[in-house]
Amino acid sequence: MGGRVQRSQHGAIYHRQRDRDPVAVPAETIELAGDRLGWPVSPEESIGASDDRVQCFENGIVTRRSGKLEMWLRPDPAAAPPA
């Protein structure tokens, strides 16, 4: 499924298809994750009453806690060791 990306110095706006709203991704998140997370599926959102934030992507999430960004990739089922 295709889409468009409009980049700026502050991040990018991802627009996938007509029936979905565009999603903004901060520049810091793009620098951390590159293309490894795939397309964003939600905007960056607050976690509780703090300044902490989370943003969901096709292949994982990015959290911002106490100003520190962390990327959490979804495990690849094909890479799992045999049972």
State the main characteristics.
83 residues, single chain, mainly beta, globular
The mean pLDDT is 89
Helix- and strand-based class?
Answer: mainly beta
Strand order of the largest sheet: 4-5-6-7
Number of contiguous helices: 1
Question: What is the subunit arrangement here?
Answer: single chain
Number of domains in the coordinates? 1
- Helical content stands at under 10%
Sequence stretches where pLDDT stays below 50 over 5 or more residues: none
Q: Rg from C-alpha positions?
A: 14 Å
Instruction: Sketch the topology as an H/E string, one letter per element.
Output: EEEHEEEE
Q: For the report, how would you describe the main beta sheet?
A: 4 strands, antiparallel
- Please provide the count of β strands: 7
User: Beta fraction of the residues?
Assistant: 35-45%
- Dominant shape: globular
Head-to-tail CA distance between termini? 33 Å
